Automatic annotation (TrEMBL):
Protein name: ATP synthase subunit b, chloroplastic
Lineage: Eukaryota, Viridiplantae, Streptophyta, Embryophyta, Tracheophyta
Miscellaneous section: In plastids the F-type ATPase is also known as CF(1)CF(0).
GO cellular component: chloroplast thylakoid membrane; proton-transporting ATP synthase complex
The species this protein was found in: Ligustrum japonicum (Japanese privet)
Coiled-coil annotated residue ranges, if any: 71-98
Keywords: ATP synthesis, CF(0), Chloroplast, Coiled coil, Hydrogen ion transport, Ion transport, Membrane, Plastid, Thylakoid, Transmembrane, Transmembrane helix, Transport
Amino acid sequence: MKNVTDSFVSLGHWPSAGSFGFNTDILATNPINLSVVIGVLIFFGKGVLSDLLDNRKQRILNTIRNSEELRGGAIEQLEKARARLRKVEMEADQFRVNGYSEIERKKWDLINSTSQTLEQSENFKNETIQFEQQRAINQVRQRVFQQALQGALGTLNSCLNNELHLRTISANIGMLGAMKEITD
């Protein structure tokens, strides 16, 4: 410590005799050199340092501004995507509801058409049964009539003789002739 104070005290006692040389006392020369360098740097470097700091500040502000714009765009896109998602979800729900109601409607249509087909088949079956019954009844009537007619002819043939037979034919011919005159 004493050397440092001695070096400052001895500044006033430098010899002015003409030799130029190196001062090897590090503690005496460093504070002076440092103060000169720092003073020069502050005087000349202030503008450069200020410009560098201003440029850095502008880049940081531009980066923040761009980040805010990107953030705003991302938020806008997120809102649009959410709106599209809500719309798609509503459409999906609508399709689901419509699909279920469509399936239910088709089910009832199928049940109704099957019921109608069964009813038509039942009606056709009943009509067929009635037709077959009517046909069977007509066949039975024809056979009964034929048998009755054969029985009546057999009875008439066995009971009638030729003369009675000729009178019956003549009477019938007369009745047919009278009917013909009435119709003309």
